[in-house]
Amino acid sequence: MDPPRRREVNRAETYKKWVKLHLADITASLASFNEYAHESTFFLNGHPVRWVYVVGTVVAINDEQEKKTVLTIDDGSGQTINAVASRDRIYLKNVPQLLHSTVKAKGQLELLHGAWQMKLMSLEADLSLDDQVKFWKEANQTHDRLATTTSSTSNSSSTTTSATITSKKRKA
Does the keyword section mention DNA-binding (predicted)? Predict the structure, then answer.
């Protein structure tokens, strides 16, 4: 598959927005191109994704490193992601109290040694069940919309078809 053109990527609706996704969509469906690796842009059925928004439970905390804190987030979709908070960019209050709390994490994705992680840009803790259900509905809508449409960034002359999203959706 040929990489999308820069002009088409810049015009795509998902390029400059926070995209609400389940972790299973991230791990199973995102593709990358070398031309866009330096800016952490990945593609979901031809739609460029730079920034993601996930909701889940903090299941582990690695706070022993000097310059960063790593939160492992589980959204119940069968996958987890490490959200890395650089201490010079984001301040996390009461880090030990975040364990087992439900959080809304926003950040930029990166693929490091074959594993997905998120550079944390913002974190909101102690979400209510209503907030979680609202997120699941919105993430399911995003999933359905991006799975059924191919972005104009997809090259129609390519002989390879875009991957179809096949992850499990959460029931709201």
Answer: no
